[in-house]
Automatic annotation (TrEMBL):
It comes from Carboxylicivirga marina. InterPro entries: ATPase_AAA-3, CbbQ/NirQ/NorQ/GpvN, ChlI/MoxR_AAA_lid, P-loop_NTPase. The lineage of its organism: Bacteria, Pseudomonadati, Bacteroidota, Bacteroidia, Marinilabiliales. SUPFAM superfamilies: P-loop containing nucleoside triphosphate hydrolases (SSF52540). Residues 257-324 form the ChlI/MoxR AAA lid domain. It comes from the Bacteria. This is MoxR family ATPase. Residues 51-181 form the ATPase AAA-3 domain.
Length: 331
């Protein structure tokens, strides 16, 4: 009985603390037409302190979305266009010699900000990609002999275009794992596209207002951690992750030779954190199986390695995840 009272108290608190979510979504929707999934994904990443990889053709408002989010949260934003000739120093910063002081001083790069948009991350060579991924993982940058912590909140949204494969360097599987979510964007619907035309042809383009401060986000992250997750839900998450590693144990023998490697423990952590953030966005103080199912594809799609056999049979990680969700017992 005590526990249910507890959950009731948590629920009330979460309801109160998550009141800004509706306001934030409303401000985002002023500027971004449709793309509900993108806005939700950005919010989950922001609240659970995770980075986001976005895949979609050019022109789907990827840059606009993160720029708008930075405006709403009153945070610093920098956009880095990745190119094949980019160097790690262009991203992190470098030591430059000051004649006035007669010594080397540090010039910090564009990574020293709250929101980073790494545009077309697969265009940059491995050295630059690993410099960014290290900053994402360690939340710090080393220039010369000094290590500098990065500001909080720190969110990287990297985009990659699925269209051109020439002159691109695919992200190594092990490094893709650093991204909490991989969102795949689709074209807008007809009525949404009509709305987009109107927005762009209007005398003034809609602008979002600043309604939050970075410290509000940091506080909200602590509250998200307090969202109640039952042991049954934890087991459900572990089962889903294990089903990607040992499909035959879950009645999915057909995928045994299709998966070259399954999701890592980082996937289980991300799935738990994202489920709590999703419950928070839905203004609920506890996680239900539907929360896990809602974000499962985004958390796992880039964490399952497909074998040649899967590619030969046109089996995608999306299909494997859907089958796992149908097969694993829901608590």
């Amino acid at each position: 009985m005590e526990q249910s009272v507890d959950i009731k108290a948590i629920n009330e608190r979460i309801k109160e603390e998550s009141s800004f979510v509706d306001l934030l979504t409303m401000e985002m929707n002023k500027v971004i037409v449709g793309q509900k999934h993108l806005v939700e994904g950005l919010l989950i990443g922001l609240l659970s302190d995770g980075h986001i990889l976005l895949e979609g053709v050019p022109g789907l408002a990827k840059t606009l979305a993160i720029n708008t989010l930075a405006t709403i949260v009153d945070a610093k934003f920098s956009r880095i266009q990745f190119t094949p000739d980019l160097l790690p120093a262009d991203l992190l910063g470098t030591m430059i010699y000051s004649q006035k002081k007669e010594e080397f001083i540090v010039k910090q790069g564009p990574i020293f900000t709250n929101f980073v948009l790494a545009d077309e991350i697969n265009r940059a060579p491995a050295k630059v990609q690993s410099a960014l991924l290290e900053a994402m993982q360690e939340r710090q940058v080393t220039i010369g002999e000094t290590t500098y912590p990065l500001e909080e909140p720190f969110l990287v949204m990297a985009t990659q275009n699925p269209v051109e494969q020439e002159g691109t360097y695919p992200l190594p599987e092990a490094q893709v794992d650093r991204f909490m979510l991989k969102l795949v964007l689709d074209y807008p619907k007809k009525d949404e596209e009509q709305m987009i035309i109107r927005h762009n042809l209007a005398k003034t383009f809609p602008k979002a207002s600043c309604i939050l401060k970075p410290e509000d986000i940091i506080r909200a992250r602590q509250v998200v951690k307090d969202v109640y997750m039952d042991e049954k839900i934890e087991k459900y998450i572990v089962d889903i992750t294990f089903a990607t590693r040992y499909p035959e144990q879950y009645g999915l023998e057909k995928f045994k030779d299709m998966i070259s490697f399954g999701a890592s423990p980082r996937a289980s952590i991300s799935l738990s954190m994202a489920s709590k953030a999703f419950a928070f966005i839905k203004r609920r103080g506890y996680v239900i199986p539907e929360d896990v199912r809602a974000i499962c594809h985004d958390v796992l799609r880039h964490r399952i390695g497909l074998s040649y056999e899967a590619e030969a049979n046109n089996v995608t990680s999306e299909e494997i995840i859907s089958e796992i969700l149908n097969q694993v017992e829901v608590p």
